[in-house]
Amino acid sequence: MSKQTEKIKELIELRAKARIGGGEKAIEKQHAKGKFTARERINMLLDEGSFEEMDMFVEHRCYNFGMEKKHYLGDGVVTGCGTIAGRLVYVFAQDFTVSAGSLSEMLASKICKVMDIAMKVGAPVIGLNDSGGARLQEGINALAGYAEIFQRNIMASGVIPQISGIFGPCAGGAVYSPALTDFTLMVENTSYMFLTGPGPVKAVLGEVVTQEQLGGASVHATKSGVTHFTASNDEEAIAMIKKLMSYLPQNNMEKTPRVECTDPINRMEDYLNEIIPDNPNMPYDMYQVIAGIVDNGEFFEVQPNFAKNLIIGFARMNGETVGILANQPKQLAGVLDSNSSRKGARFVRTCDAFNIPIVTLVDVPGFLPGTAQEYNAVILHGAKLLYAYGEATVPKVTVTLRKSYGGSHIVMSCKQLRGDINYAWPSAEIAVMGASGAASVLYAKDAKALKDEGKVEEAKAFIKEKEDEYTKLFANPYQAAKYGYIDDVIEPRNTRFRVIRALAQLENKKLVNPAKKHGNIPL
Amino acid sequence: MNLLSANWAEAWMITGMSILVVFCILLLIVLVLLIFNMTAKKVTATARDVKQTYQVSKQVKAFEEASEEDKAAVAVALYLYYNDDHDKESGILTIKKAPSAWGRVLNPRL
Prior knowledge:
- The complex is a heterodimer of chains A (about 525) and B (about 110).
- Chain A has about 525 residues and is of the alpha/beta class.
- Helix content of chain A is about 40%, strand content about 15%.
- In chain B, about 65% of the residues lie in helices and about 0% in strands.
- The chains are: A alpha/beta (about 525), B mainly alpha (about 110).
């Protein structure tokens, strides 16, 4: 055997050694937990044969606490590039079989390298996280590694899409990287995210809580809104990431990928003409409206279980990606509150960053009143949504279905917030407030005078009469249309076609905000 | 009454002797079976070796009788088989080209 052949053999052996990560036993252990290994996840995510691994021979350089005896090729993370449906993506997958995927200085440098290349070529970065946290033996070097990653997350934010899949533990400082990315996905029962685990919580607060209760997927999907998606297992999670990728562009200078549209653009859904109940206090299901207007009724919802009074997600119209925001009358009558406002604001900014047109379906009776909301800074959260809509330069098409009252009318992409095309259904009520509230305020003195005279029934009848008068005058779209605040009043069943045509005319929209270092969004 | 006055020492000795005899016989049977098994294995292995040797010698003979071209082909095949340790690549380019403004130079002076 020649020397060259021997060297090639050595290379092959080293590669085989690196591919086995922490060893067969550790892999078996990972499988026993119902989890896949880093390489298996990457293989599931990327097109077959497309993965090109980088830094396979990287090793840590720590000689503390017995680490000099533990050396694994690749050092706990698999990095590289590949394609998803032919589109280039960069990936890193933490390998739990190697020192529990703990983050070392060299592991961080591997992640930083793929992020740097992704920024050079303008391709998305997908991180598959499964790590026990910082490698304690490395001390400050591990922390520095985290900070290097975070800085790159910040620089890449709004430039290339960043997606984080949480497939295992993600605790302490590690949680900030997913939090800085555009989308986070968690796997139920196997993943959790928290800054401080149940141990410190008990020590500091005396509160006994499990990992799942503290930072499980269901908690972050329903209560905190930290995660955008949840999946029941690794396979489902990978499939969701692929689907999400299909709606996103490669970078902020590109358009989203177009898909052949098989659904007629002029499809009319007669049920939309009947969907608004006669009683304004009766709810209806906004999902039915969304299904009626988007291509093939397909809607990829983001944060489906958090702040359900505002629906957000991606769909396609005439084959092009759109971001949809819609008030849900079935949840809290569709009011805006702190959580729904910040949920919506974040989504609007994501769409604006990645050139995704925004379609807003409005049925909002106002902001949720009460001390809980005010103490929770609903003013600031509402302002976030307002700011996001006002700042967005992507095409914005708004359809008002029913209520659009007061401050919430302004917030939900009104004409003055640079809404490009604003439609309304004939059932729309665009006013400062609802008829009953308005009549009570406007005629409070008259009603009180009647009551003081002991004419309670007359007072009620008087208020009712004024309510009807207010309803007739303002509870329709024509007052707004009269002043040009609504571009057109459309028949509900034509909504799909009208929105598609509006988006088509806005395709080459050009709008530039004033030059500035950055705005000061009320965070 | 005679039964009750039996010689117990003698009785225990007879019982012990009986158990010992049974144990020895069982041990003998196990030994015989082990020897039989080992012999059977040896005989089978020898038969297999003989068969293999016969087959190899037959193949060697066939190889010797083959033409030079056939020998060369076999040699090449063997060489490739024993030197097939390569770092295999997929050989597929999956990246689809798409128009992008990303790489465009924004400043024409650069």
